[in-house]
Amino acid sequence: MELINPLAEQYAQQFTTPMNELLHHIHQQSEQHSQAHMLSSEVQGSLLAFISQLLKPKYILEIGTFTGYSALCLCTGLQPGGELHTIELRAADAGTASANFKLAQKENEIHLHTGDAREIIPTLDYKWDLVFIDADKTSYTTYYELVMERLEDNGIIITDNVLFHGQVLGEKMTNKSAKAIHAFNQHVAADKRTEQVLLTVRDGLLFIKKKHTAATS
Description:
Elements (H helix, E strand, L loop, with lengths): L5 H9 L6 H10 L11 H14 L3 E5 L5 H6 L8 E6 L2 H13 L6 E5 L2 H4 L7 E6 L6 H9 L2 E10 L15 H14 L4 E6 L5 E6 L7
Parallel strand pairs: 1-2, 1-4, 2-3, 4-5
Antiparallel strand pairs: 5-7, 6-7
């Protein structure tokens, strides 16, 4: 189900500041991947870069690297000495991402972890300023709770595909991932620790901000 008119997407791209030529090249190469539907659009990549540049995060976590395009967009806003940690389950995609990070000369800023994010996240001893979740949909709530424990006050979590091809819009959801995404959206909406806004960009982006935690005496 196409949620956004393709002409509107083309128009948006026409009037969005493009990323650099290398990122455009990596995006074009990634479009040839057999699972190219998992790739962020170039407008979405520009949005991720824009947000990162506004926040100027010290530590970024990405769950779901794919070919590394979104990580390269996100790292454009890192503070000097900052780090982006990205997790990819599939070894082949991790290899492609690693090559792209080297091509972009970002291998010192971007740290790639290969394996199950549910096992890797607890081993990363950082306080996250910005988190991007774009991995297996049935684990979104698990990822959310794992990173919330180490998210800075006023830190931001961005989750992709929260409209899941429009399948969350119907009353009768049969797809397992659609059900999981809908349950995740409900979980976040009920979480008093956060504030959130759902944007109808491409397949839906949910922006979540952790409220400031008052110090206890």
